[in-house]
Amino acid sequence: MFNVEPESVSEGWHSYELRSTMIPNASSGMDNEEHFCKLILYKEIKDSRVRIWDVIILVPNLLFLLFIAIRFNRARLKLRATSSPIFLAFYGLVICNVVISVIRCIVSMTVNAAATVGGKADKVLWVTVRFFLLSTEMSVVIFGLAFGHLDSRSSIRRVLLATSFIALAFTITQGTLELVLPDDTFHIPSRDFYVFGHGGMMFWFCNSLVFTTIYLFILILPWTRLRERLALPTRKSFYVYAGTLATMDLVQSIGAGFLNYTQNPIGLCIVDFTAAVYLTLFTPLVYHTFLSEFFGVSQPSIMFSYKAQVDDAMDDDTVSLPHQQSFTSLRTDSDYIYQNHSVYDSTQFDTNTTPVNPLYAASLQSPDSITGYSIDSQEAQNQTNGYQQ
Fold first, then answer.
1. Residues near 320 by Cβ (< 8 Å), separated by ≥ 6?
2. How many CA atoms lie within 13 A of 234 on its CB side?
3. Which helix (H) or strand (E) holds 193?
4. Burial class (CB in 10 A: 0-12, 13-18, 19+), 238
5. What confidence score (pLDDT) does residue 224 get?
6. How far is CA 81 from CA 356, 358, 374, in A?
7. Whole-angstrom Cα distance, residue 210 to residue 202?
8. Rounded CA gap, 365 and 130, in Å?
9. Residue in 196, 198, 197, 130 with CA at minimum distance from that of residue 164
């Protein structure tokens, strides 16, 4: 009935194949390979193994690591002088975070992510970085809300152990999703491998919503009845810290949800931006909020108690509550991190009655000026503070 020329059929089928290869992933509504926000995740510098994404994360972390290294000697002296486990815990977490981030970037630049072994190693390192960052994030919150005034080694160990187990469960879930059920959004067809996708956009969306809710709850706590039962942090910087993370997690959840449900490249751009900010600025934010003032103090205006020394012998979980008069003489270093110390300095502490640890006072000087620290220098320091031995 119909006369169809074989050549015309062959030409028509050939042109259909050609058109289909020229339309890149039309079903997804976006060019996954060519869009800048996906290209930046795997694009290498001049065909080398150094990816632009790794450089973006490495440079700020490397600069912050250099800053830590330059100030390490002074920080060590101050930590020795206070004998405070909470300062040591925070400082240790900060160092671990920045070192692991730098190592991950360097290893990613040396392995071939397109290879099976290299791709798995890269994802394992990503998950490891997330483990340390999440442990720090949860520890800061728990110390502030529940254990902010416990300044003993046993309480610090319990908090770090609990947060480590929670972070481990989270990162195992994320790593399993990355290795077993990777998100197709992060698949690179031209190289046939997956870049790290944070466990998939649905997982990232739910995770971001949970953390947004937690930080928003922290921000409204001072206006609830719970403020009467909890010794909430009074320092404004703590709430600025919580508000910053709440904003970032909210924006991140919007981007992840937008990408997951619409496949719009704008969602991927938002996820990339929030991920870069978190991976480069979170650790410096923790240092600036909770440690910079302590390491930068130039005079012993804050009088620390000798609870840390008692803790070495008894490991006692004595609590120092700022609103109870009977405990004001046992102010702990965790109060300095989470509470407004001007309340204490104005009325509660007198330099003529409160002893100052001579090592702490010495640590406020230049490190080079106290390398010859001796008993004579200790006696001289005590005399300058109004004490006779």
1. 149, 151, 305, 307, 327, 330, 331, 332, 334, 335
2. 15
3. strand 193-194
4. buried
5. 86
6. 10, 8, 14
7. 13
8. 37
9. 130
pTM score, whole prediction:
0.71
User: How is residue 127 written in tokens?
Assistant: 């998950």
CA-to-CA distance for 272 and 268, rounded, in angstroms? 6
Q: What angle do CA 322, 326, 331 make, to 5 degrees?
A: 45
Structure tokens at 270: 């938002």
**Per-residue pLDDT at 266 exceeds 70:** yes
The mean pLDDT of 106-129, rounded to a whole number, is 83
Output the six-digit token pair for 87: 């300062």
Contact 93, 36 (CB under 8 A): no
DSSP 129-189: HHHHHHHHHHHHHHHHHTSTTB-SHHHHHHHHHHHHHHHHHHHHHHHHHHHHS--GGGEET
Task: Say which amino acid occupies 78.
Answer: K
Residues 325, 50: contact at Cβ < 8 Å?
no
The span from the CA of 195 to the CA of 63, in Å, is 25
Q: What mean pLDDT do residues 144-149 have?
A: 66
pLDDT in tens, 51-96: 899 999 999 999 999 999 999 998 888 888 876 688 888 999 999 9
Cα(234)–Cα(241) distance, integer angstroms = 13
Residue 368 CA: distances (Å) to CA of 21, 67, 247, 365, 384: 69, 19, 43, 8, 20
